[in-house]
Amino acid sequence: MRGSARRLAVSILAVVAGAVTFASPARAATNPFTAAQACNNDFGGSWAYASDGHRTIYASDGTKVGDVYLMYNGATGYNCVATLKAVAVGSTTGVSAGIRVYGGSWAYDSGSYKYYAAIQRSAVDKCVMYSGEVLYATSWQSAGRYSWGNCG
Over the Cα atoms of the chain, what is R_g? Predict the structure, then answer.
């Protein structure tokens, strides 16, 4: 009888411990990359944050799902757009970065990545638009600047 009571107590303890573990809120992983690191990793060089070059991407439920940044490399005249994931960080899920240089069409880096998407284009003496998207649940969430800016 004592053996059964002990097994029952151990079983109850295991169930309670499991319930507490699963009831705890999940901790979201922090993206280990900055926008400057993402641009440097993919394209090399030294990148600075452009003025009016950041938008936060929110889902319709208010969840922050990412950030999109416009970066500038003064040595080359290139702009880089980096979209950093804030959800499913470290898991391979959809993310996209887009840039449009005045006189051209939109160009994208879009795929399933663990941390970010990044794209660069030459924008010497031209204005740019930028955008970023993150796949959240079953739909794409986006943000960006869809008017010309950062000219020159």
Answer: 22
